[in-house]
């Protein structure tokens, strides 16, 4: 492809989103769906953030590698991301493990997910591949990172998050020199290396990599036959490039998209029940750190056609209301007090019920006089009349999943067990 000096690099790139992981720390919330397909923010899925970042950055060729319980994810992509037009050079390919290497071989690692699709990527004739994790919440302009990669001449550029040094123990951590060249890559180190000039800060990998496709293609084919390799970017390819080639760090604060009144640099791994609950409930704050109302950098998703939310009854103790909350379309809040909660589409709540800091996923139902506090309701869960959850952790733990931070997850299977004993 002919390169015009000063032209945008995003049109010459493909985004490859790794979306096959279960996300086991979300426990039963991922029993029927992969982590990237988990609902977030009232109407979106987690994967919508990586896809929207790519689209808003100007990348119009994308691939999503799926593996674990992918039906929900694939259905979402087909419904919500079906606006790409091939005649304009726009593509979104869904890439389940297709046993292209062996009829019995699924994706063995993150790098293998790309290796098994080399021929498809070749067909798009791209110059760059942007490797993304499909399970983080953030807004980022990948064009800035692509330019950083091109300017440095690196073999790989790694997106890095600046974090307090001791908190970096939970991440893959980069040691860098004064030019941001990566001199070491350590997985969850007990004593993370500090950033030059910032002894209390460290650089954590975001799982975002930019490669020239020609370089990565050769590296993947060589790694494919490498004995003892787990065929994974974080465990095999990145440490090897750091040791033998040129790996460059890109600082997230340079490409983070910030909007609204809150200028906080925002990135979240919502991989635990506590983190998932906190990130959703935080959207109800007066000035949330994540601005999902910004039309200049929208988070695209499946635009379900639905009627407006409705609030009914206006009596003492039986008033349909939502205070400091977000309520999606097709919800009926009937005589229920809802506070600091995030309610997805199709939810029904009934008279005299009380909800405090509840994340109610689509089409869940809360019946009369139920009281829920710090609860996650999975899709299509129906809470029996009068049930109280969130006041007695020991009692809740007999039937439901109570997290370390005191958040209670309720699924249909859990309610079925409760009804078998108490119904």
UniProtKB/TrEMBL annotation:
Pathway stated in the Swiss-Prot or TrEMBL entry: Glycan biosynthesis; glycogen biosynthesis
Pfam families (UniProt xref): Hexapep_GlmU, NTP_transferase
Domain Glucose-1-phosphate adenylyltransferase/Bifunctional protein GlmU-like C-terminal hexapeptide residue range list: 307-410
Gene3D superfamilies assigned to the protein according to its UniProt record, in alphabetical order: Hexapeptide repeat proteins (2.160.10.10), Spore Coat Polysaccharide Biosynthesis Protein SpsA, Chain A (3.90.550.10)
Which InterPro entries does UniProt cross-reference here? ADP-Glc_PPase, ADP_Glu_pyroP_CS, GlgC_bac, GlmU/GlgC-like_hexapep, NTP_transferase_dom, Nucleotide-diphossugar_trans, Trimer_LpxA-like_sf
One GO MF term, please? ATP binding
Q: Which top EC class is named for this enzyme in its record? A: transferase
Domain Nucleotidyl transferase span(s) in chain numbering: 15-284
- Record site: Could play a key role in the communication between the regulatory and the substrate sites: 67, 106
Q: Which domain of life is it from?
A: Bacteria
- What sections of the protein cross the membrane? none
Q: How does it assemble?
A: Homotetramer.
Explain the purpose of this protein.
Involved in the biosynthesis of ADP-glucose, a building block required for the elongation reactions to produce glycogen. Catalyzes the reaction between ATP and alpha-D-glucose 1-phosphate (G1P) to produce pyrophosphate and ADP-Glc.
Designated name of the protein: Glucose-1-phosphate adenylyltransferase
Organism of derivation: Mangrovicoccus algicola
């Amino acid at each position: 492809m002919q390169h015009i000096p000063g032209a945008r690099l995003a049109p010459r790139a493909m985004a490859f989103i790794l979306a096959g992981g279960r996300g086991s720390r979300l426990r039963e919330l991922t029993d029927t769906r992969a982590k990237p397909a988990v609902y977030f923010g009232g109407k979106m899925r987690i994967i919508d953030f990586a896809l929207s970042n790519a689209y808003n950055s100007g990348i119009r060729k994308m691939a999503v590698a799926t593996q674990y319980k992918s039906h929900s994810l694939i259905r979402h992509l087909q419904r919500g991301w079906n606006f790409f037009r091939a005649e304009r050079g726009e593509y979104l390919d869904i890439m389940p493990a297709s046993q292209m290497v062996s009829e019995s071989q699924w994706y063995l690692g993150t790098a293998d997910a790309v290796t098994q699709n080399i021929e498809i990527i070749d067909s798009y004739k791209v110059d760059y591949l942007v490797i993304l994790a499909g399970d983080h919440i953030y807004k980022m302009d990948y064009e800035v990172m692509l330019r950083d990669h091109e300017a440095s001449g690196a073999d790989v550029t790694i997106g890095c998050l600046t974090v307090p040094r001791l908190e970096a123990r939970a991440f893959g951590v980069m040691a860098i020199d004064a030019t941001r060249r990566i001199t070491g890559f350590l997985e969850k180190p007990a004593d993370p290396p500090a950033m030059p000039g910032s002894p209390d800060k460290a650089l954590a990998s975001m799982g975002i990599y930019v490669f020239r496709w020609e370089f990565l293609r050769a590296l993947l084919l060589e790694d494919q036959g490498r004995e003892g390799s787990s065929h994974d970017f974080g465990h095999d390819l990145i440490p090897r490039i750091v040791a033998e080639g040129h790996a460059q760090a890109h600082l997230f604060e340079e490409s983070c998209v910030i909007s609204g009144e809150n200028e906080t640099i925002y990135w979240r791994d919502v991989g635990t029940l506590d983190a998932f609950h906190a990130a959703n409930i935080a959207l109800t704050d007066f000035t949330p750190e994540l601005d999902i109302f910004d039309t200049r950098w929208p988070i695209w998703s499946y635009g379900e056609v639905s009627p407006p939310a409705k609030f009914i009854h206006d009596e003492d103790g039986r008033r349909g209301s939502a205070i400091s909350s977000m309520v999606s379309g097709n919800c009926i809040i009937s005589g229920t007090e809802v506070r600091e909660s995030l309610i997805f589409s199709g939810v029904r709540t009934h008279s005299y019920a009380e909800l405090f800091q509840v994340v109610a996923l689509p089409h869940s139902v809360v019946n009369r006089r139920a009281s829920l506090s710090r609860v996650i309701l999975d899709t299509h869960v129906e809470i029996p009349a009068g049930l109280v959850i969130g006041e007695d952790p020991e009692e809740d733990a007999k039937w439901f999943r109570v997290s370390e931070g005191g958040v209670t997850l309720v699924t249909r299977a859990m309610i079925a067990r409760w009804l078998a004993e108490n119904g």
